[in-house]
């Protein structure tokens, strides 16, 4: 009888340990739905920027630059932004990476990321309010966007 209890204790302990170590959290690496590779930060080369040889140019074209921000590692996951700047105006903001892995992250980001984009296009800078309830993602968004804007002005 005693041997049976010891065996049961060992088996249940092992089962609990297996369950514990196989649990995936939102901060763990290798989660389903996450991007494993980040886009390189800095100016994205544009092959279409050079005018065709022998073509007359009437006006100097507005310089359009696309830049990737650095990956901001937040406590919920990575955030990386890509910004397109025409002259001195931010014309497009894309999210390259954002926290994923559970339905709560997806729900928050579905609400927050479009609002953050709208704020950037309106403010024309990384000085935005952010989104209530998505403070960590908002901070990562600002950080990556500022890095993109710095790279655009430096390169």
Task: Describe the structure concisely for a colleague.
The chain is of the alpha+beta class.
Explain the layout of strands and helices.
Layout: H1 2-22, E1 42-44, E2 64-68, E3 72-74, E4 77-86, E5 89-97, H2 103-123, H3 135-154
Describe the protein in words:
- The protein has three helices and five strands; from the N terminus they run H-E-E-E-E-E-H-H.
- By secondary structure, the protein is α+β, with helices and mostly antiparallel strands.
- Strands 1, 2, 3, 4 and 5 form a five-stranded antiparallel sheet that branches.
- It is elongated, with a radius of gyration of 23 Å.
- It starts with a helix and ends with a helix.
Shape annotation = elongated
What is the alpha-carbon Rg in Å? 23 Å
Number of strands: 5
Oligomer: single chain
**Largest β-sheet summary:** 5 strands, antiparallel
Strand content: 15-25%
Number of alpha- plus pi-helical segments:
3
Helix content: 40-55%
Structural class: alpha+beta
Head-to-tail CA distance between termini: 76 Å
The average pLDDT is 80
Order of helices and strands: HEEEEEHH
Q: Enumerate the spans where pLDDT stays under 50 for 5 or more consecutive residues.
A: 26-36
Which short descriptors sum up this protein?
alpha+beta, 5-stranded antiparallel β-sheet, 40% helix, elongated
């Amino acid at each position: 009888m005693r041997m049976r209890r010891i065996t049961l204790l060992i088996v249940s302990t092992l089962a609990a340990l297996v369950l514990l170590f196989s649990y995936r959290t939102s901060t763990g690496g290798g989660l389903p739905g996450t991007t494993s590779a980040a886009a390189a930060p800095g100016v994205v080369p544009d092959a279409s920027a050079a005018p065709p040889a022998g073509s007359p140019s009437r006006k100097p074209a507005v310089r359009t630059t696309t830049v990737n921000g650095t990956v901001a590692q937040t406590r919920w996951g990575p955030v990386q932004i890509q910004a397109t700047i025409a002259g001195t105006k931010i014309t497009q903001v894309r999210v390259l990476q954002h926290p994923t892995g559970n339905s709560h992250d997806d729900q928050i980001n579905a609400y927050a990321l479009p609002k953050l984009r709208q704020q950037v296009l309106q403010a024309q800078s990384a000085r935005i309010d952010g989104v209530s309830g998505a403070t960590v993602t908002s901070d990562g968004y600002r950080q990556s966007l500022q890095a993109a804007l710095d790279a655009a002005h430096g390169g």
